[in-house]
Design goal:
It contains one helix and eleven strands; from the N terminus they run βββββββββαββ. By secondary structure, it is mainly β.
Length: 129
């Protein structure tokens, strides 16, 4: 049975740091595209970090570049999102996602429109000003 379970998020002050984790069961990570997405109130779902687990390529939008870092631990089937220099606009529900890797599809669709197969339940991150 496939499951993606995010850690509890939390409340953090502006400028603070937080690490989210995603425990993945049901498949090994190495042939998947793994991503973190977020949805703020009244806004659409947006990608914030992605890793091609097959070759290690990472992707970030400009809004989080140099502040967020995605990583994985294949031995423990864990996905992480390290967030630093947090801003109030980072407040959102954060989701982890996974999709079987198909290189040509990833090249065509990009990481944010990739057809992810599995999603976590989401975890709230609130950044206070």
């Amino acid at each position: 049975q496939v499951q993606l379970v995010e850690s509890v998020g939390g409340l953090v002050q502006t400028g603070g740091s937080l690490r989210l984790s995603c425990a993945i069961s049901g498949f090994g990570l190495d042939y998947y595209v793994l991503g973190w997405f977020r949805q703020a109130p009244g806004k659409v779902l947006a990608g914030v970090a992605c890793v091609n687990a097959k070759d290690g390529t990472t992707y970030y939008p400009d809004s989080v570049m140099h502040r967020f870092a995605i990583s994985k631990d294949s031995a423990y089937n864990m996905l992480y999102l390290n967030m630093s220099s947090l801003k109030p606009e980072d407040t959102a529900v954060y989701y982890c996602a996974a999709g079987q890797i198909e290189d040509s599809l990833l090249a065509r669709s990009g990481p944010w429109r990739y057809p992810y197969d599995y999603w976590g339940q989401g975890t709230q991150v609130t950044v206070s000003s």
